[in-house]
Fold this sequence. Notes:
Layout: H1 30-40, H2 45-52, E1 54-55, H3 61-65, H4 67-70, E2 74-75, H5 77-86, H6 91-97, E3 115-117, E4 126-129, H7 132-137, E5 145-148, E6 152-155, E7 160-163, E8 173-174, H8 179-195, H9 197-216, H10 221-229, H11 240-261, H12 266-283, H13 287-300, E9 310-311, E10 314-315, H14 343-348, H15 355-358
Parallel strand pairs: 1-3
Antiparallel strand pairs: 2-3, 4-5, 6-7, 7-8, 9-10
Amino acid sequence: MDGQVAGASWLFGPRRPLPVRVTPLRGESTGSFVNRLAHGQGLELEELLERVGFGQASRDPVRVRAYPSSTEMYVNERGLEYLAVLCGSTASALQEVLPSTAAAHLLKTETTQAVWKWPWLPREGHLVPLCGTCATARGVRETAWMISADRWRVCLEHLRFTDSDASGGGRGLSLKLLPETAEAHREREALSQRYGQVGRELFADAFQIAVHWWTYLPGTARWVRRAWDAGLEAEAVPTAPLVLMPEAAAVAARLTAFEHAGRRDGQARTRWMEELRSEMDGWGIDFSVGRLALMDWLQRHSTPATQAPDTADGPASRTAPQERQVSAGMPGAGVPGRLQVSPGHERAAQPTGVLGAASCLPWQLGQPACEM
């Protein structure tokens, strides 16, 4: 390693697959797959890296072996070719399942040699363990690290929550301990299936509102109780996504109803706020603190989507309202199935799946209350 050639033969690349085949998982990090590929041959990670190409890594084997859980491995085009030969696949097949081998993430190098790098942090997304039950079902007997848009993953099939902080260990935390949270994630999926990107953005807004509340009021009894039920530290940041989801799902329903109604006059806004005040009272959340986040959202969504102005060249691409038509067979098809969001959201949101970035609200989980 450290740029040293592992053998003259590797200047021309590997010619045949390694003896034991290891199948990559869809969505898996490249580093995780290479780690499992090495272990399948009875090798440690640092020993296999020498066969994938040249790169910079620590001289400490223990540190190198921890890379897959802390950062991602990136390769150039030739490195991808080497890796494909070693695992008995093709470069295009690997790019279909390993997100970080996509063309946009390949290293740009002047050399024609195979090169790999482990940057300090992944360029995009987060490393989150695959649900342990899913891994076992696929014949994987060690932690498989996935590239996730969010810092956590929820497996509704096995009711497991995994995150970048390894809450619940390698197999993940059982959501059987938190049935309200499991149901909230089902509601999140239903909103996304029903309204597409619009649904994802409204849920992101709702989650951010809940994040604001939790940041100022982390000792709220219902959130502390959920944390204790799951055996977690009540006011720890990694705990928040688990304990906040039920309220986030309820708020998402309120935001969706507001956008459906399309009314932005003072009377409609006051009535909407009073309905949420009543709900927050039932949750034990201080409305005087929580209303600030709600007022911020209302301000950003003050213009109905139907009044979005056109530019001289037609509707503006960034402010054009998004909408999704729901087919009769989808859940909740008995209510209006077309949803448009205020252009105020479109100007602020970023087109990504990460909850924080998909929202029009600026604060982030873990940000101190004094900075909000």
